[in-house]
Amino acid sequence: MYEWKLNEIVDNGLCAKCGMCVVVCIKDLLTFEGVPKLKDECLRKGNGMCYDVCPRVSSGKYQIKIRENFKEEYYYAKSDIEGQDGGVVTAFLKYLLENKKIDGAIVVGDECWKPVSLVVQNAEDLLKTTKSKYTVSILDALKKAGEMGLEKVAVVGLPCQINGLRKLQYFPYLAKYDKKECKNKKLPKIEYLIGLFCTEKFEYDNMKEVLAKHEIDIAKVEKFDVKGGKLLAYINGEKKEFDLKDIEINKGCKICRDFDAEIADVSVGCVGSPDGYSTVIIRTEKGEEIKNAVELKEGVDLNEINKLKELKLNRFKKELGRRKENNEKVSFYWLADYGGVGKRADGNIFIRIRAKPAGWYSIDEVKEIMKLTEKYNGKVKLTNRGAFEIHNISPFDAEDMVLELAKKDFITGSEGPLVRATLACPGKGNCGSGLIDTTELCRSIEDRFKERPNTYKFKIAISGCPNKCVRPQIHDIGIVGVKYPIVNEENCNGCGRCADVCKVEAIHMKGKTSYTNYNACIGCGKCIAACPNEGRDVKEEGYMVYVGGKSGREVVEGISMKLMSVDEILNLIDKVMVVYNKHGKKPQRERLSAVMARIGKGKFLEEVKELMEKEKGKEKNN
């Protein structure tokens, strides 16, 4: 047997048998024979796309969800197409094909009920695939579609397959490297993901044997359905029932928690709707297009759906407990459903709590964090962004701790290619040098931008004065409170106190008047506060903002500009992100400073300025 990293999933009964690893292998080294297998030596030993796209290694759902903005709208429907439970999926695909939204659809056909992945390009061929299959299938037709030159496709799949396909869509944001090798396979762009409800998949050969014991030829079955713990087989209009316990399910299904394909564009299944209809869950903007294909009605029985979701979750928990008790392999793929959860070098978990605005915590909040840390035998690290990181948590306990933190209004996150927690100094009212209320500004920024997805990490810092204690000049966005002086000639008597306190020697005395060198003045405002005679007034106050700084492997100082209001700052941050994500080509590799350097700092900022002015124009018109 060849060495392959995914053997840790396959050999331990964790494989979902979705087939995504087979689809993405650039060298076509993988085959699917009940489970995926290497048919030749891999130079990487599986340390590549096949591993990183696997939904049983990591779900990747948190990073996917913040980019897709999923919702849940429940309806039921049927079409005029003959098919399983109303033919809704077929009708939607027909609409997409006829309206040139896609070049083809990846669906599952069958040979004597054994699922076969197919590429469909017209409505007639669609009608041949309308039956529901309950055994293992893989989406290898996605490769065929690419070879055929198809550019845009819709894919119909089970929850595990939808998870793998979403990971493929957002691959660079999850794996931290580009899928260049996959581009060579000419895989088409996946425009629509249609998920099917699924409690489990059955092993085809076993299902065939069970039917044979009852003298039923699987080739003569007209329709299969699953209801009330029974497999229903229809032959010549007659219904036959079989106990699902007698049919072998895929081992990997026991560790699955997703019943209704929760990250599809639209999910479809018969549960919760009247006989002859399908339940339809619209989750994204693209999913909304199903409204053009079928008439949707409200009134889905959510209790029925929740029963099966709970059944699947309970089976998952039972299997997890069994594996824990027997010390069997568990991948903990579902921890990637949550933000701020990461794996430590020792195999345990750390959980990062997003810092409260400006890093201020109440006594009660600190007590709650300590209480949970003690409960789960963790240890605390305070990050340099004012966040609590709870370390040494058992992966078996990590999800429970995250959910308990959420109940106490703590957000876990601030990790990955998104806006990290805003760093801020104590600011005005807390520090003698503070010129601005850093906490209030921090709160405004957090309210609008927290966890907002970006090409790469995006860091913001606020300094209450030009002392720049939090290093704002080497952040993607750095904000500094400034206050510039002007002499009040009537009150100034030339005592020189202002010059004494000026640390940059920007003030000199001439006769009975002080003068400021504005080329040297940094706007700290110390001279204004220190004058015993009210001989210095405020000439200008506001914010010095830095754009495009960074630290780390390479230190870059941002470009500075003056802004006068919080609204301007929020507008600037928003538009910088818009332009950054428009031009960013290397997710998880290219920081804002690199994008600005590549396209030209002047050109970048000019584009930001144009967008800001458009925003101001809209506000005036309103």
Commentary on this structure:
- By secondary structure, the protein is α+β, with helices and mostly antiparallel strands.
- It is built from 20 helices and 23 strands.
- The chain has a seven-stranded mixed β-sheet with strand order 3-12-11-7-6-4-5. It has a five-stranded mixed β-sheet with strand order 17-18-19-22-23. It has a four-stranded antiparallel β-sheet with strand order 13-14-16-15.
- The longest helix is centred in the middle third of the chain and has 24 residues, at about 300-325.
- About 45% of the residues are buried.
What's the total number of strands? Answer: 23
Major β-sheet strand ordering: 3-12-11-7-6-4-5
Multimerization status:
single chain
What number is the mean pLDDT?
Answer: 90
- The proportion of strand residues reads 15-25%
Biggest sheet details: 7 strands, mixed
Q: What would the principal axes of the Cα set say about the shape?
A: elongated
User: Helices and strands: which structural class?
Assistant: alpha+beta
Taking all Cα atoms into account, the compactness measure Rg is: 30 Å
End-to-end Cα distance, whole Å, is: 68 Å
Give the number of helices: 20
User: Low-confidence parts, pLDDT < 50 over ≥5 residues?
Assistant: 110-114, 132-136
Indicate the percent of residues in helices. Answer: 25-40%
